[in-house]
Design brief:
heterodimer; A: 320 residues; alpha/beta; Rossmann fold; eight-stranded mixed β-sheet; four-stranded antiparallel β-sheet; 23% strand; B: 349 residues; globular
Chain lengths: 320, 349
């Protein structure tokens, strides 16, 4: 039976030891779930742990606590064989199209590597047929299979990265800043491609980005992260049109609007200061020092993510 | 005597490489007046950085080569100045803020010394006064604890703080023109908002002109007084913000505007991506450089380079669609942005 939620994350923790008695709490006790065939956007400033979430989900990092339940199976308790089965269904598209493709491999070899590992296709000929199909699917040509990554532009490389992740027929893809390194006009090409595949193959995405307008465009739900914690989670429209957490409000108002008339009337609510260090964080709300609404309780008690109406969640003591 | 502060006319810059000549800038014209912000917008590789670096003559020759044109600063020709002569201008008349603050600051020098170095070079000050001014500048750009910051090394500062240090350095000699090459691209939106606010404030306080290079149209609409859109080494359209955002004439501008999702409006419309990639500047195409990606491409576009058409005194665009003989085209933008290209229609050249 297919459950509605393809992925459920419960109390996920990922800590890094960065020195004697220094723990960097990159992801600290976060929970969320993603519906099958939908897109969850994950936004936040650099260093807030959003990439760590993505990498932990696809088992590139081992979580330090919590549960990751993919299609009813707990990834953390799976044995090696089961894990290989599960990771085939969860793939990742990386941020940097220049660093994420092996320069010594041809594009054909890069894409077919996953096929070999997961024993898809009986022989090389069959595998190459799949590679050709994939290349055409992402808008490249079959002749490109024999070329090396350096012969391609950034946008084309990102298409190769997408072809590679699609090769093993995944159901869930983590797009980690998949379009950030590309030019505006190329970004739109890649986003349209991703949306197309979602419509055709029913893929589920976790779309990690710091470009808030692109996240709104592609996501069904949006999660906002700050220093290892989720501070707000809700339907895309809700979070963008009625943000309740002061951090989300500041973040959204900081985005310049590409429309001079609306931009002139739009008031920027500047967030003072910078993100604090995630090493040995103090108790209380992590946004406390920059928060315009902070009160006494904020420095003592860590706010929990609570429902503020119809599935819209926020972690703040002072929600109006 | 030119009435503009800076006037760039018909500038051509090429790079000689082993693979051949890269024609990075192919005939760029623009002017800049005192106290205004000009935004140059375009994709990577369109020549916007090279244009600005050429104004300061920061590109080593060879491999770069200024093939022609003129750069008039307060009516004075800069194109034939030697490196040594240019040093009187760099830092003092023009300053630059680079995109990547990590690689543009010297990692082995304390931040303060890097700032006072420029001050000592251009202003009649001794070390003590220079230090005092440097600390003052650090405070002005909003760095907390400027005295401590003066003694810090770049790697101990965050990206936003380093960008502030760069701005402090650029402004320490009170330049007439600030050249900002993607100053906020590497920063988070919240830090970006802080830096943009700072640049606006400085402009209002000191009357510095700014040339802002960016590919983010949101940043453009927040900052620019005038906009130039560059593509493949040329300015394809220029105008006031209202011209570019509400009455754009060039299909490339349409494409750029269409490929940015609008955060404040939820739309299910597909992003209009521009198909293909920019042309190879080793061998720029005959005719319009955008022709191969342009959905409205006509026969004439492949053969002849479009002239610059004047829509108004401020608004110019280089596209054959504006010619009266071209077919009328309704650009693919939303209702509020709908516009029509003038033309009698029906007649394709």
């Amino acid at each position: 039976m297919l459950s509605e939620q393809i992925l459920e994350v419960k109390n996920l923790k990922k800590y890094f030891d960065v020195g004697p008695r220094q723990v960097l709490k990159a992801v600290d006790d976060i929970s969320f779930s993603i519906k099958r065939g939908s897109t969850l956007g994950l936004v936040g400033e650099s260093g807030c742990g959003k990439t760590t979430v993505g990498r932990t989900l696809v088992s590139l990092y081992e979580a330090d606590g919590g549960e990751i339940i993919f299609d009813g199976k707990d990834i953390m308790s799976a044995n090696k064989k089961e894990l290989k089965q599960l990771t085939r269904r969860m793939q990742m598209i990386y941020q940097d199209p220049y660093a994420s493709l092996n320069p010594f491999f041809t594009v054909g070899e890069i894409i077919s590597e996953g096929l070999i590992i997961h024993k898809i296709g009986a022989n090389k000929k069959e595998r190459m047929e799949i590679v050709y199909e994939l290349l055409e699917l992402v808008g490249l040509h079959r002749e490109h299979a024999n070329r090396f990554p350096h012969e391609f532009s950034g946008g084309q490389r990102q298409r190769v990265g997408i072809a590679r992740s699609l090769a093993v027929e995944p159901e869930f893809i983590v797009c980690d800043e998949a379009i950030s390194a590309l030019d505006v006009s190329i970004q739109a090409q890649i986003v349209n491609l991703l949306v197309d595949f979602q419509d055709k193959m029913g893929l589920t995405y976790l779309f990690i980005a710091h470009d808030l307008s692109m996240v709104r465009y592609i996501s069904d739900r949006t999660a906002v992260m700050y220093l290892g914690k989720l501070v707000e989670l809700g339907d895309g429209d809700e979070v963008y049109s009625h943000p309740v957490h002061p951090y989300t409000q500041g973040l959204l108002s900081a985005v310049p609007i590409a429309d001079p008339r609306r931009e002139r009337s739009h008031k920027v609510q500047l967030l003072e200061g910078e993100v604090q260090s995630p090493i040995n964080p103090k108790p209380g709300c992590r946004f406390f020092k920059r928060c315009p609404k902070a009160t006494g309780i904020c420095s003592e008690v860590t706010p929990e993510l609570i429902d503020v109406g119809s599935g819209h969640m926020a972690a703040c003591h002072n929600i109006d | 005597m030119s009435k503009h502060l800076l006037e760039v006319k018909d500038l051509y810059v090429s790079f000689d490489t082993y693979a051949g000549e890269v024609q990075a800038v192919r005939g760029v014209d623009f002017t800049l007046d005192g106290g205004e912000t000009l935004a140059i917008v375009g994709e990577s590789g369109c020549g916007k950085s090279v244009t600005v670096q050429t104004i300061m003559k920061l590109n080593p020759e060879p491999p770069s080569r200024i093939k022609g044109g003129s750069i008039l600063y307060r009516g004075e020709e800069l194109i034939n100045k030697t490196n040594r002569e240019m040093q009187a201008y760099r830092g003092k008349e023009f300053s630059m803020i680079f995109q990547d603050s990590m690689t543009s600051l010297n990692p082995t020098m304390r931040v303060g010394r890097q700032i006072s170095e420029a001050i000592l070079k251009h202003r009649k000050m001794d070390r003590k006064e220079a230090k005092k001014l440097a600390v003052e500048m650090l405070a002005k750009v909003g760095l907390p604890n400027p005295d401590k910051c003066y003694r810090q090394y770049p790697h101990t500062l965050s990206g936003g703080m380093r960008q502030r240090v760069m701005i402090a350095m650029a402004l320490s000699c009170e330049p007439a023109i600030l050249l900002a090459d993607e100053p906020t691209t590497a920063l988070d939106v919240t830090t970006q908002a802080q830096i943009l606010e700072l640049m606006k404030e400085i402009k209002e306080r000191t009357g510095t002109s700014i040339i802002l290079i960016t590919h983010n149209l949101g940043v453009v609409s927040r900052m620019a007084d005038r906009i130039a859109i560059m593509y493949a080494g040329k300015i394809v359209e220029r105008g006031l913000p209202d011209d570019i955002f509400y009455r754009p004439k060039h299909p490339y501008t349409w494409g750029l505007l269409g490929s940015m999702p609008d955060m404040s409006l939820r739309t299910d419309r597909k992003l209009t991506s521009i198909p293909g990639t920019p042309p190879d500047l080793f061998a720029p195409p005959e005719g319009c450089a955008f022709a191969s990606r342009c959905p409205y491409c006509m026969h004439v576009c492949l053969k002849h380079e479009p002239p610059v058409f004047d829509m108004s005194e401020e608004h110019q665009s280089a596209c054959w669609l504006i010619d009266s003989r071209a077919e009328m085209v309704v650009p693919p933008l939303g209702e509020d942005k709908t516009l029509r290209v003038k033309g009698r229609g029906g007649h394709v050249v």
